[in-house]
Write a sequence for this structure.
């Protein structure tokens, strides 16, 4: 636990690397931030005995065996309708949500919890947050700032893609999803990034299990490297992402998304929430 600034603490605990920012009663509240650790520890303790169930593909997941954060993870993945996302695809977002919910319920009017880039935010009336977005994970830097307000209904933002922390079966350099909850955004960012895949000689893959025998998708091919693509190929990939974004919007989970493939970017934003 490290205090970065008044009202901002970094937690590094097990698989969680989270920055928590809190405003309460109009000021930065470091002491309230500290309560985030107890929530993180409780989530991890609840998830540990459920890991075997959480590493299964949706057709085998028995939600009745899960509770707390494990159930939230399963519900977020099952809501996408995809058969190849395990509940682990929503773990970071679920923990971000849990911490943000606790701090908001404790009276904070502005909360942001960033678990490795999966951000849960809770904004009271009149509050706003300028959120930096990395559209291309290979560049490792913020290149877009989005202004979020309570009226936009966004409570979770997550990014996935080639070059990120987790394996991907797609070729997108980055897909950022905006949803009501971070667990939803986390699962959907993984799914939309996966949808960018093109079977081409320029796309190199291997089994996830060859890179990490403990991976929850050890039996799936993941992308390891993509050679330079043509403009037509990039557009094909992005069109696939946009088509899935439309499906997920109609299912009710996705509010907006931004996707990039090797420098080419597209946006799905039917409510214009990403513009002022």
């Amino acid at each position: 636990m490290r205090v970065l600034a008044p009202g901002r603490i970094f937690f590094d605990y097990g698989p969680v690397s989270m920055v928590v920012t809190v405003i309460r009663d109009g000021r930065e509240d470091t002491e309230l931030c500290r309560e985030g650790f107890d929530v993180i520890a409780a989530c991890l303790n609840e998830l540990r005995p459920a890991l075997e169930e959480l590493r299964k593909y949706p057709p085998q997941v028995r939600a009745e065996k899960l509770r707390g954060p494990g159930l939230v993870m399963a519900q977020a993945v099952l809501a996408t309708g995809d058969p190849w996302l395990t509940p682990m695809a929503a773990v970071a977002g679920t923990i971000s949500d849990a911490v943000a919910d606790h701090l908001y319920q404790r009276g904070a009017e502005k909360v942001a919890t960033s678990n490795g880039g999966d951000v849960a935010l809770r904004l009271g009336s009149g509050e706003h947050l300028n959120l930096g977005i990395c559209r291309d994970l290979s560049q490792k830097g913020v290149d877009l700032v989005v202004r979020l307000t309570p009226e936009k209904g966004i409570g979770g933002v997550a990014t996935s893609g080639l070059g990120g922390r987790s394996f991907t079966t797609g070729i997108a350099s980055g897909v950022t999803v905006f949803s009501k909850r971070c667990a939803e955004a986390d699962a959907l960012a993984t799914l939309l990034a996966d949808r960018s895949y093109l079977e081409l000689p320029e796309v190199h893959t291997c089994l996830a299990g060859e890179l990490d025998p403990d991976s929850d998708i050890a039996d799936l091919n993941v992308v390891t490297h993509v050679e330079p693509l043509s403009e037509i190929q990039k557009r094909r990939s992005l069109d696939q992402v946009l088509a899935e974004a439309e499906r997920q919007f109609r299912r009710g989970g996705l509010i907006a998304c931004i996707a990039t493939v090797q420098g080419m970017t597209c946006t799905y934003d039917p409510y214009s929430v990403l513009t002022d």
